[in-house]
Predict the 3D structure of the following.
Amino acid sequence: MDIKYLKGDATQPVGNSNRIIVHVCNDIGGWGKGFVVAVSKRWKEPEIQFRNWAKSGEKFELGEVQFVQVEPTLWVANLIGQHDIKRKGQDGVPPVRYDAIRAGISKVSIFAREINAAVHMPRIGCGLAGGKWDQVEPILQHELTAAGVETFVYDFD
């Protein structure tokens, strides 16, 4: 099974069966730039629950995932795969944390198989987090498609 690449909006995933929209969040509780803006325009609950999770501090750390059901057959996965929000040090190390994305995607894969869901996402970790797709794509192939999870990646028109 291969990743299916589509042109379009990842907040409007194709299909009618169970679906999970995955996006990468930071570990400081910030929400307000990038893909989350589109998420919040469609549904308020993912932001509300993310902010509550951040305030609680309970398992709010890199590699964790919060699943928020937004429609009867649709969940948003808030995956913490970014440390802070700014590049650090002289080398400008980006906030993306590939190990955290792998850990989170592994959890998404388990949940997707439990509820027989397809996974949908933008090119996670490659926007504000500063990641490289050639690092993220193999994670998705290993954790999702190799496990039989139908996976869609959207490039916004």
